[in-house]
Specification:
about 150 residues, 11 strands
Length: about 150
């Protein structure tokens, strides 16, 4: 009976560790950026293809995050915006971080591109660039501390 308990205690932590490795494996493929106060260059520009096979309230999103941002210290102001290259498609931005999960859609105030501005708490943020239209389209994601 002691052997059974030993094996059970061995498999539970191993299974837990494997689960953590599998769930964090999706983050490895994402472009990763560390953001600290007064970062340079400003803006930071990242590129990719919008959309994916997962249907959500935030459009068609990829199965893994497009980008992972680590904010090393809380920032009083940060602006993250997505813009389609070539004007085709309708990108969305799904942000999952310490403050919750947010879907950002384009509006007239942001010039027709999804944009999240304001205070960003220190922590890790997963950004998924989705698409309201069909297909995938090239995009540019910019990260800046400059106000418009």
């Amino acid at each position: 009976m002691k052997i059974h308990i030993f094996l059970k205690s061995l498999f539970v932590p191993t299974g837990l560790a494997m689960g953590i490795l599998v769930s964090s494996a999706h983050l490895v493929n994402a472009q990763q950026v560390k953001i600290s106060p007064n970062f340079q260059p400003d803006p930071i520009t990242l590129t990719g293809k919008s959309g994916g096979s997962n249907k959500s309230n935030c459009g068609n999103i990829p199965s893994a995050p497009s980008h992972v941002i680590e904010v090393t210290e809380s920032l009083p102001y940060l602006r993250v915006a997505v813009e389609n290259v070539g004007g085709s498609g309708q990108p969305t931005l799904l942000i999952d971080g310490p403050g919750g999960k947010y879907c950002v859609l384009a509006d007239n105030y942001s010039g027709g591109k999804p944009e999240m501005t304001g205070f960003w708490k220190a922590g890790i943020y997963s950004l998924s660039v989705g698409e309201l239209s069909q297909g995938q389209h090239n995009y540019t994601l910019s990260i800046s501390q400059q106000k418009k």
